[in-house]
Specification:
With about 100 residues, the protein is mostly helical. It has one domain (about 5-95): MazG-like (Helix Hairpins), CATH 1.10.287. The protein contains 5 helices and no strands. Helix 1 packs across helix 4 and helix 3 (about 35-55) packs antiparallel against helix 4 (about 60-80). It is globular and about 35 Å long. The two termini are about 25 Å apart.
């Protein structure tokens, strides 16, 4: 496991942006009339759910809600044409 699953998910998210697929959740987010505001709302919602899970939930709930948050962050990054590798580079820069 490792970065490859994140890369795979991000690749699908990016692909749905340029190749919409009927029935795809990601496509529905990109096609929402609210545009970027829709994914930003989802990020806020998922962040709140992570907080609640961390405060009241068990490990499984924390993991699940964290994955949802990261997923929606990926949708936002792709919407703004920010490669996931740029986030990795920022972590590397901060580590030095």
């Amino acid at each position: 496991m490792g970065d490859d699953i994140l890369d795979e998910v991000y690749a699908v998210v990016c692909d749905r942006k340029v190749n919409p697929k009927a029935g795809s959740y990601v496509t529905s987010i990109y096609n929402d009339p609210k545009g970027l505001d829709k994914v930003l709302e989802k990020i806020g919602e998922e962040a709140a759910e992570v907080i609640i899970a961390a405060k009241n939930g068990g490990e499984r709930e924390i993991i699940s809600e964290s994955a949802d948050l990261i997923f929606h962050l990926m949708i936002m990054l792709a919407a703004k044409d920010v490669p996931l590798d740029k986030v990795r580079e920022e972590f590397e820069r901060r580590r030095k």
